[in-house]
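Q: What residues go here?
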């Protein structure tokens, strides 16, 4: 039976498929680390109290990139170039979601609006990341090779999501509610489309590596399109709701080290 667990098991069991999976994940996490580091350095003068939390967020993302690369090294594998059509972070940036890299490479301080856009974008993408890691923990939390790594990343993603909720609610109370809701909606609708496109591209590459029959590829593609249809109809609302998290001040301290990696 074709399930999410069986699909990931195939990827984990094949060195080339695992190599591509970890390379894509490491690249995205490392890019997120760079973005957060630049945002922390350029954060609006009136919002400097956020800089340590943004720095912590970036440090966590960098750590995740190192973890995925370490998983490759444990198998004696090297990262591979990430196919552009599978580069989730780059495609989001091209769609204008989040802050433009051109702006982050400069030295002009960000505006308050920029920081709100960053937080709203992060709330959407961190929901995706948290959901994916929850799924991996469910299926592979006790895996001897991956278990420790995915539990660590899952905990960090839960912290990142809690931080986004808490800070956006604080900013909404300060009078930015309309901007926050507009940005959340725009980000969510764009993200679900990009996630669909990236998922189709990743499955296409995996299909070639694992030599899936055309029928299997077609079933997987249909499943991805069905998920997109659901998210386009109603699922995106989960990405824009805001509620006070149980984890308060989730990024209030230094990044948790990962000595095993």
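A:
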């Amino acid at each position: 039976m074709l399930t999410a667990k069986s699909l990931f098991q195939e990827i984990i069991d094949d060195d080339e498929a695992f190599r591509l999976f970890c390379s894509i994940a490491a690249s995205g996490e490392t890019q997120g680390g760079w973005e957060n580091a630049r945002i922390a350095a350029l954060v609006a003068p009136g919002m400097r109290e956020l800089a340590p939390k943004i720095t912590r967020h970036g440090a966590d993302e960098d750590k995740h990139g190192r973890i995925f690369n370490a998983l490759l090294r444990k198998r004696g594998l090297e990262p591979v170039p990430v196919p552009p059509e599978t580069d989730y972070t780059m495609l989001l940036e091209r769609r204008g979601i989040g802050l433009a890299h051109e702006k982050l490479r400069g030295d002009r301080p960000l505006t308050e609006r920029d920081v709100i856009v960053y937080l709203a974008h992060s709330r959407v993408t961190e929901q995706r990341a948290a959901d994916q890691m929850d799924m991996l923990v469910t299926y592979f939390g006790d895996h001897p090779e991956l278990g420790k790594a995915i539990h660590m990343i899952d905990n960090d993603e839960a912290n990142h999501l809690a931080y986004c909720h808490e800070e956006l609610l604080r900013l909404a109370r300060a009078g930015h509610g309309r901007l926050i809701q507009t940005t959340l909606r725009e980000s969510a609708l764009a993200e679900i489309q990009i996630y669909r496109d990236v998922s189709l591209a990743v499955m296409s590459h995996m299909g070639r590596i694992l030599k899936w029959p055309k029928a299997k590829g077609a079933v997987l593609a249909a499943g991805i399109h069905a998920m997109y249809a659901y998210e386009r109809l109603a699922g995106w609302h989960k990405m824009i709701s805001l509620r006070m998290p149980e984890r308060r001040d989730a990024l209030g301290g230094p990044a948790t080290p990962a000595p095993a990696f």
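A: Context that may help when evaluating the design: The two ends are 34 Å apart (CA to CA). The mean pLDDT is 94.
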